[in-house]
Design goal:
Layout: E1 4-6, E2 14-15, H1 20-28, E3 36-41, E4 46-54, E5 60-68, E6 74-81, H2 85-98, E7 100-106, H3 125-136, E8 144-148, H4 151-157, E9 168-172, E10 179-180, E11 191-195, H5 203-211, E12 215-218, H6 226-241
Parallel strand pairs: 1-3, 6-7, 6-11, 7-8, 9-11, 9-12, 10-12
Antiparallel strand pairs: 2-5, 3-4, 4-5
Helix pairs in contact: 2-3, 2-6
Length: 246
């Protein structure tokens, strides 16, 4: 852990002995009473924590002083089709780690339908993956997150329209691409990028993207794993937008 995150309601309480943050502080970092560590408030500021006391039961009492803002975020909303739960967990972690502003999970026609039954969305696994990515990046903010049953419902709802600036709409497609993500002109506009399942988009979905104003772009001739495509697209988005929201 590069930063220890706390929720507001946890402040002023002991961290249990078996809490992974307690274990990391005492067993990995070998911190003792009086020692300082990097800390932050989930959804708020970051700064330092102090181990005020290590209790007889192995729990610890810490205080946090947080007055430094988190790092800026990428001007990117990433939409990703359902894939294997283990891949989804890595995608959530990596998108949070890279500072993506929003992640939308969407059903697709060619994606495996059983993947939609993942327990990752029910048992706090998605939140845990986002936190894992934020901790690595010394961040306190998590991407906003939403789930949509289909491409059509996502396109109809258009969640990106809450943005004050008109975004550039892109769908990754290495089969029937209209151009390359590598070649788009650097922009100050936010980006919305849709990444499909391993089998790609159906022709119906391509048509829906076109009617919604999306450009279909490739990232080379090789089909990529969905998690690789998400990371590559996010890196390219950082390069095209200057890396962060001004």
């Amino acid at each position: 852990m590069n930063i220890i995150l706390f929720e507001e309601h946890e402040l002023g309480r002991n961290l249990p002995r078996r809490d992974e943050r307690t274990i990391h502080l005492l067993k990995v970092l070998h911190k003792k009473a009086g020692d300082v560590f990097e800390a932050g408030i989930l959804g708020g500021m970051r700064g330092t924590g102090i181990i005020e006391k290590i209790n007889f039961d192995g729990s610890v009492f810490v205080t946090v002083q947080a007055n430094e803002p988190p790092p800026p975020r990428i001007q990117l909303r990433m939409a990703v089709a359902f894939v294997r739960p283990i891949q989804l967990k890595r995608i959530f972690r990596d998108m949070s780690n890279m500072g993506v502003s929003a992640v939308d999970l969407i059903g697709s026609e060619l994606g495996e339908k059983s993947y939609r039954d993942t327990k990752l969305l029910e048992n706090g696994g998605a939140q845990a993956a986002f936190i894992e990515g934020a901790v690595q990046a010394r961040d306190t903010l998590l991407p906003s997150f939403a789930v949509f049953d289909s491409i059509e419902k996502w396109l109809k709802e258009r969640p990106w329209e809450n943005n004050k600036r008109l975004p550039l709409l892109l769908a990754m497609d290495n089969v029937r691409a209209e151009g390359s993500l590598f070649n788009i002109t650097p922009t100050t506009r936010p980006l919305v990028i849709a990444v499909g399942p391993e089998r790609g988009w159906s022709d119906n979905e391509r048509e829906s993207f076109e009617h919604a104003g999306f450009l279909r772009l490739s990232m080379g001739s090789r089909p990529l794993r969905t998690e690789t495509a998400c990371a590559a697209a996010a890196f390219l988005a950082m390069e095209k937008t200057g890396g962060s929201i001004p």
